[in-house]
Structures are given as structure tokens and as C-alpha cells.
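During the reporting period the student researcher (J.K.) took over the structure-prediction task from the postdoctoral fellow and processed the backlog of single-chain submissions. One of the processed entries is reproduced below for the supervisory committee.
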Amino acid sequence: MFAKHLPPSAALPVVLALDPQAAAACDPERVALAAADAFSVDAVCATHWPKQLVELRERLRPGGRLIVTLADLAEDPAEGAARLAALQASGFIHCLVEALPDGRWLCRGERAPLDTGLARLTAVAAGAAPAYAALVLLIRQTPNKPTWRFEPGERRVWEAATLIDPATGRPALAAFTSLVKAVAFMQPAVLADFLEGINKTGRFATAQVETWGLPVIVNPAFEDWRNAAPGPRVQVDPAQALASEE
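J.K. obtained the following C-alpha cells:
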């Protein structure tokens, strides 16, 4: 079951299995098992809760994932919150703790793609001013027709897509630093029925977005969020949108 939670990889993913059960669950045709002392692996997998979380994070390549399945949380679901907090405190991002259909629990965290990645995401979530002037949002426009077909005075309604942040359970705006990155998320998300009704993008000044008081997830990758949940759309004012630079 570990295979569907592995991060994208150009070659056969290299997995460090922490116990025999995890090793047995890794399909040799889909992954390569790493040596016990390996570093820069694509994933670390276990069927027990590992104690040295920070050390394991450092053994992952940037963007690599820790994937743990547990049976003991089934008797005490509240323990899941403690596991989630432990992952976040150890520097993992995109953390997830959820029940599986077979009664086990999945605990997953990712090493930040860059050394500054975690700090940047934390700063944006906390409302600090990021280093970019504008953000691109995924929009559902009603009615769905080009601008030149609107009659004078006809009202447009824009609703921006959100994602449910597993760390908080709250919706956060999905925002991108370029149109290219927005489209890279939107296309597979729409094809997978993860997002419905998105028919355009809108570019807004970051300072304007901050005034809305909503958490923001910057440049999410769809592969990292396909097992998460889309949040409710948030109505935004199209008159506040900036002209596109692309």
C-alpha cells in the first residue's frame, strides 16, 4: 500500500524500510529497497511509529516522504493529533494522519523541497509578507463566458478554490506565484475530478490577498494533495484582480 503514497520520481523510487513488514509491503517491481545506512532516499516506510523523526527527515531527499501505517491508533483516534503534531514539530510539511479502510492509520510527512521551503510556507500561513508581489488563484466564474460577451452592468461572480489544510482542518487558498504553476496544478486536478467548475485564473496583489484574512498555501503540487480534500470556494471581487503578465 506504500506505493500510491510515494513522491514523484523520474526513476524507480528508492525506499528505506524500517521493519520487515514494511519491506514486505514494498513491491520490488515498483520500488528499490535502500541499505539500512542510506541517505537521500525517496521515502522512508514503516509499520511502527519511529522515534528519531528529525534524523529520518534528514535521510530523505528534498521532497521525499515518511510513510507510516499504524494499527494502534484504531483504539484511540485522539492519538492521531499527537502524531500529526510530532511530524510538524520535526520539520515535515504536507503532513497527513488519516484512517484507512482496513482499520489502520496512515501517517505521512514530507521533507521540504528546499531548505527555505518550510520557513516560507510557515510565514505565509502566519500572514507574514512573502517575497512576491502577486498571487494567481484558481477561479470559477459565473456566468462562464469570455469578458467580451458580458453586457454592460452584467455581474460576474468569482469564487476562488481552497484546499483543506491537513494540519489545521481549515480551508486555505490555493495560490501560485505564476500562471504556469497554477495551470500545472489545475489541469490534473480537474481531470481527476478533484476540482469542479474551475474555468479561469485570477491574479491578485499579495497585499490585497492578505487583507482577506485567509490562510494561503503557495504553489501546492497536485500529487501532494490528491489524497487531501478540496475546501469550499471563497468569493472574491474580480474588480480587484490585476492584469495578467503572462
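The committee noted the following: The chain has two domains: 2-110, 117-240.
J.K. will present the remaining backlog at the next meeting.
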